[in-house]
């Protein structure tokens, strides 16, 4: 089935997501204005800086159009800053920071600590073909984790060891998917393929 997935292209690692989506076999386009949003079946919210993306969404008058599409059931996938944007509740946001919402959970910004900016680990993710022998290598960059998950959302992966052991880092709620980490930077397209499946099921 033909589908077009947009990547919100206001700030962040837009190119990496476009490449991963194309490798996963779908048409992918950057979205900067409402006319572009209107042409896509689903939207990726990239990693970057959630406070900046929030400000730019409002400056470009895209925040309400995206919220409206999300409420109408548009599938969306957020990585890192994108997970923050999809969360209903944020701990550690800046004054006045807003999210688009949709995921019944609370994220903690910069949860993995500021000194250790980057953290990497192997994950087994529900819904993604992965196992202890063939895990998904996850890269976290000043990443949030899911502090509290509400009944509407489902945890797909948790960190297995180290100081963050047990923390939820991948979630799904209907057609919404979010990860604390950045699968777009590792060349492993399994998480993007899961999103493509979610979009296909939703259409
Ligand atoms: N710390 C960033 C934020 O709060 C997210 C970092 C990232 O997307 N790599 O938006």
Record the SSE blueprint.
Layout lengths: L3 E5 L5 H10 L3 E5 L2 H4 L4 E4 L4 H10 L3 H9 L4 E4 L1 H6 E5 L11 E6 L9 E6 L12 E6 L3 E5 L4 E5 L9 E6 L2 E4 L10 H13 L1
Parallel strand pairs: 1-2, 1-3, 3-4, 4-12, 5-6
Antiparallel strand pairs: 6-9, 7-8, 10-11, 11-12
The site of glutamine (GLN) has 12 residues, from helix 5.
Concise summary:
With 203 residues, the chain is α/β, with parallel strands linked by helices.
Shape verdict: globular
Strand content: 25-35%
Number of strands: 12
The helical percent reads: 25-40%
Biggest sheet statistics: 7 strands, mixed
Structure overview:
- The relative contact order is 0.18.
- This protein has 203 residues and is an alpha/beta fold.
- Strand 11 and strand 12 form a beta hairpin.
- Helix content is 26%, strand content 30%.
- The strands form three sheets. The protein has a seven-stranded mixed sheet with strand order 2-1-3-4-12-11-10.
- It is globular and about 45 Å long.
- Bound molecules: glutamine.
- The site of glutamine has 12 residues, from helix 5.
């Amino acid at each position: 089935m033909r589908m077009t997935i947009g990547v919100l292209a206001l700030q962040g690692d837009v190119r990496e997501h476009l490449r991963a989506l194309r490798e996963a076999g779908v048409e992918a386009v950057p979205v900067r204005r409402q006319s572009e949003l209107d042409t896509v079946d689903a939207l990726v919210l990239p990693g970057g800086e959630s406070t900046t993306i929030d400000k730019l969404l409002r400056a470009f008058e895209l925040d309400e159009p995206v919220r409206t599409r999300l409420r109408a059931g548009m599938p969306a996938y957020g990585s890192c800053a994108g997970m923050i944007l999809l969360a209903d509740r944020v701990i550690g946001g800046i004054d006045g920071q807003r999210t688009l919402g949709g995921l019944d959970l609370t994220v903690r910004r910069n949860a993995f600590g500021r000194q250790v900016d980057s953290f990497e680990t192997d994950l087994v993710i529900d819904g993604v073909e992965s196992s202890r022998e063939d895990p998904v290598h996850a890269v976290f960059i000043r990443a949030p984790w899911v502090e509290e998950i509400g009944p509407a959302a489902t945890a797909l992966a948790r960190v297995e060891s180290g100081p963050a052991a047990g923390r939820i880092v991948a979630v799904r709620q209907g057609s919404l998917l979010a990860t604390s980490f950045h699968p777009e930077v590792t060349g492993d397209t399994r998480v993007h393929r899961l999103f493509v499946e979610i979009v296909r099921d939703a259409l």
